[in-house]
Specification:
Length: 330
């Protein structure tokens, strides 16, 4: 397992380089000039050219990309065009807010989606099953930004019980977390239902019922643990989607997080900030996927035993090969 984790961490390097390359190319082909944007429309061509030289924009694109990767490997993501502050400091000051929003939305999605999925699978074709289906259909069809605005209109403007902007208190957390988590909970509901329906038809579930165990024990001890494996995958993906979805949600709710920082940076053509933000989100998303893969072994011991069996088989084959080589040498 440790070798697997180290291998996945090493694979993180080409993934981040690829993400950086894609973002760099997309920013490179945009028609706007960041030096002109920063200098202002009234600045002279000489002033803009001098600013381009100071920002290193006159260097060839491959040179700038290689320099960026080299500096990123040393923890330097450049300096913001607008504030002149290091990009790393700007991102780290905003990232905890975005990370908290992603965690809260994933928690809401996991709890709501798993419970509704279990209920829907147990009471298949009932009113509860139809309710869960409609709930999932609305969640998948509803854009996050539209749901966020509707929540603001209803709970902030009409009822005046929740603040419409900010992220400083638990009351501020409710609407943004619900807006991001609702879509994810709809997807998890359908996945949990499908997985539970497949598991509860297995032979070992019939055996558990035949042994006289209660339905609650059969569902939550035997069936749910095995049904959670594909659901955990979806949860990990939705956590990454929560980080990306925060770009829109933080703008709607005026949250000072990484998502809003990236939107403002795109509008200001602040390319180092955009590249750094995407790189951090990609890194966290990859690490979360690795954590999900490791969690499989603890949810299903068969996965760990299969991995351990492959490792032991490789060792046996190596030992047998070494023995044969030694016999031939003798």
């Amino acid at each position: 397992m440790y070798k697997y984790i180290i291998k996945r961490l090493l694979l993180l390097i080409p993934v981040l380089i690829g993400v950086s390359l894609v973002v760099f190319v997309m920013l490179e082909i945009t028609p706007e000039d960041p030096a002109r944007q920063l200098a202002g429309s009234d600045a002279s061509e000489e002033a803009v050219e001098q600013l381009r030289e100071e920002m290193g924009l006159n260097d060839p694109a491959p040179t700038r990309f290689i320099r960026y990767i080299w500096n990123a490997c040393h923890g330097d993501l450049g300096k913001s065009y607008t504030t002149k502050a290091p990009v790393v400091h700007e991102i780290m000051s905003r990232f905890p807010t975005t990370f908290t929003l992603a965690c809260l939305s994933t928690l809401i999605a996991g709890v709501t989606g798993i419970l509704l999925g279990i209920i829907s699978a147990i009471h298949q074709y009932s009113f509860l099953d139809r309710f869960a289906t409609v709930f999932a259909l609305l969640g998948v069809s509803m854009p996050v930004f539209w749901l966020g605005m509707m929540l603001i209109v209803f709970f902030s403007v009409k009822l005046a019980i929740l603040p419409s902007s900010g992220f400083s208190t638990p009351l501020h957390w409710i609407m943004p977390a619900v807006a991001v988590g609702y879509r994810a909970s709809a997807i998890i509901t359908r996945q949990t239902r499908s997985s539970m329906l497949e598991v509860i038809r297995q032979d070992y579930i019939r055996t558990a019922r035949a042994k006289g165990q209660t339905e609650k024990v059969v569902i939550y001890k035997h069936a749910l643990k095995n049904a959670l494996i594909p659901v955990i995958t979806v949860l990990g993906l939705q956590f990454g989607a929560g980080l990306g979805g925060a770009v829109v949600t933080e703008t709607v709710f005026s949250i000072s997080g990484l998502g809003k920082l990236m939107v403002d940076s795109i509008n200001a053509r602040n390319y180092p900030m955009v590249q750094g933000g995407v790189l951090v989100i990609a890194c966290v998303f990859t690490l979360v996927n690795l954590a999900v893969d490791v969690l499989y072994a603890y949810l299903d011991p068969r996965i760990k035993s299969q991995y351990g069996g492959r490792v032991r088989a490789k060792k046996l084959l190596k030992n047998e090969s070494d023995t044969r080589e030694g016999t031939r040498n003798e």
